[in-house]
Each structure stands twice: as structure tokens, then as C-alpha cells.
Amino acid sequence: MRLFPAPIRSILVHLDASAACAVRLHLARQLAEQLGAGVTALFAVAPGSSGLPTSFSAAAIASAAQTLDIDGRHHARAALERAVSHGGPAVAWQESVAEAPLHALSRHALLADLLVLGKRDPGGPHAEQLPPDFAESVVIASGKPALVVPDNAPAGDLGRTITIAWKPSRESARAVAAALPLLQRAQAVHLLMWQDKQEAAPAAHHLGQLAAFLQRHGVVAQTHPLGAAPSRIGDAILAEARRHGADLLVMGCYGRSRARDMLLGGASRSVLQAMRLPVLMAH
Prior knowledge:
By secondary structure, the protein is an alpha/beta fold. 37% of the residues lie in helices and 24% in strands. The chain starts with 9 loop residues before the first strand and ends with a strand. Mean pLDDT is 85; it is low at 49-54 and 257-264.
């Protein structure tokens, strides 16, 4: 197993018109303060079809793209100003109005070490401004690790107790490498793995190797080999994270993009659908 950890010096946080922006900003600035990183906030949403002019002329659509979400932009900017008003790390503001949010985030992510993305509640306000699979699409399209934050996540401390859902794969290895600066500051780290029928070596062996790697980086971790993988693996991962009192879950994001269709692995899909804590993912 080969991991190449790098310092986190540039954090890109996505803003939209939702109230959950405040939690994302809080976590991004908390990480920036801990890691000595800079923070850039990018406002990007998809214009709602109900606001488009009936003519659908090129000029009218271009004008609508500039003016459709003025209120949402003001809301996000106000959230940023409130966040920095009490001191702490500064946040640079950028916005994208004429580019699809997925393309905008993926393009800006090229010069970021870590993304902070929201996981939208499909039934919540402003849900129409982003597709339901936006966060995982950005992770897969950009190739960058991301802290995915559910809309209902509390604005508390991050990374005191971290759970890693391990699978001996490239995606899991990249997620662990990205999380190393946080793992080195954690008070407790728990390593989970269920036995995969395709793996000849037992889960305890793989977890022992991971624990030894982490120890060389100053991280002491507890291993939890958990027997045969259940059918609802994502639910089991979240249940174990709750059992250990984790405030952060680290795991690979499994999937691939073919044309415009996204195929996610079962664990990734179910975790992203039901998560109640931030998840650091990499593809």
C-alpha cells in the first residue's frame, strides 16, 4: 500500500442559497485555522427553469443567468461576512453565474487541496438549484478529496473522533492520505473493515497494515474487523460511526462516469443518502 500525503494549504468551499452555507463556512475556516490553509468560497447554482423568460432567446437567457439568483447570492455573501466578522481566517469570494455548477466547481478544484461541499436535503429549500447527486459528481469529476457536509450537520468541532471505512483500494487510500492532517490531530481513530468475499486475506490483516502505516505518521488507531459484509453496507458503516461517537467519516467514493450517467457503488450511494455527519471522500 502506497499513500502520498500532502499538506492542505488551499480549501475551496461551495456556497449556494441555502442556510447550510454557514455550517460549511464554519468547518472550512476551522480546518484552515488548524492547518494554516487559505479558504476560497465559490458561489455557484443552477438557475431555476421557472425564472427563465418565455422567449428563450439567447440574449434573454444570458440576462436571466446574470439576474435570476440575486437574492441567493446576497444570502451567501451575507453568510460569508457574518462568518468572518468575528475574526479568524479570511475567505476569498468568487462566483459563477454563466457556468454549470458542476463544471465551475470541478474547474476551480484544480487548484485546491480540499473541497468542502454540501449534501442537499432533496426536500429542503432551494433544492432545485443543484442536482441531488451534486456532491458525488464533483468528487468524481474533479478527482480532488472533498469534505461532504449534510445540510443538517451541527456546526461543532470536526475531527476529534474519526472513523475510517477501509477497503484496500485506490479510492480508500486517497481518502486516507487526504485525511492524514486531520488524523494526526484526532483524539481517537477507528478503522472498520468487513470481510469481502473477493479478498483472500482476512479483514484483520488489512486493518493491521493500515494501522501500521498510520502509526508511522504518528496516528494511533483502533482496528475493528467486522466479519462478513452485510447487504446494506452503507447503513452498517454509519451505524458503526455512531457507535464510536465519530464526528467525521473517511471513505473512498466508488464510481465512474459514463457520458452523463453516474454509477456509484452501494456503500457510497447509501452513505451519501443517509449521512448525518461530515464525510471526507476521494475517488
